[in-house]
Specification:
Blueprint lengths: L1 H17 L33 H12 L3 E3 L9 H16 L5 E6 L6 H21 L7 E7 L10 H7 L1 E6 L2
Parallel strand pairs: 2-3
Antiparallel strand pairs: 1-4, 2-4
Helix pairs in contact: 2-3, 3-4
Length: about 170
């Protein structure tokens, strides 16, 4: 009797596993370095896609960089990040019709949820600094990509250091 009970339980477990609903694969993300979708709150009709790469290049040329970096598990802005964001704020003030997406990223370590939250904290820190420098908050959108869009492949400190970042992306 006990043997039949064990066999029946095993058969039921197999049937339950075979009938389990499969989750669809995650939606494919655009490759790193490419413009993502138009952020929430931006009317796609207002985005002139042909101008965005030139404006992004102008931001990088005049501000020195569109990216600031962070230490492991950190979201505070060091003096180098503050200097870069100050230059970005000057560029934003010189281009009053431009909006930007402040995109936070994390390295591959940690859970997806943790890295999404960390990316958001980093993006909020950068946005708050830009606002403190005079950039109107309604021109800045915050996005977190977590660990989903690494710029440097690899599982070592040099790759992780490049992936712990916030990128200011011109969205107009």
């Amino acid at each position: 009797m006990r043997k039949h009970l064990i066999l029946a339980t095993a058969a039921l477990a197999l049937m339950t596993t075979a009938c389990a609903k499969k989750t669809p694969p995650p939606e494919a993300l655009p490759p790193a370095g490419e413009q993502g979708p138009v952020p929430p709150g931006v009317d796609p009709a207002d985005v002139e896609l042909t101008e965005l790469p030139a404006m992004q290049a102008d931001l990088v040329a005049k501000a020195g960089s569109d990216t600031v970096y962070f230490g492991t598990d950190e979201y505070n802005l060091d003096s180098s990040a503050q200097a870069t964001l100050t230059a970005q704020a000057r560029w934003m003030q010189a281009n009053p019709n431009v909006r930007a997406s402040i995109e936070g990223h994390a390295d591959e370590r940690g859970t997806r949820e943790y890295n999404m939250a960390l990316g958001e904290r980093r993006a909020n820190a950068a946005r708050d600094f830009l606002v403190s420098q005079g950039v109107p908050a309604d021109r800045l959108l915050v996005t977190s990509w977590g660990k989903e869009r690494p710029v440097a492949p690899g599982s070592d400190e040099p790759a992780w250091a490049q992936n712990r970042r916030v990128v200011t992306v011109v969205v107009r």
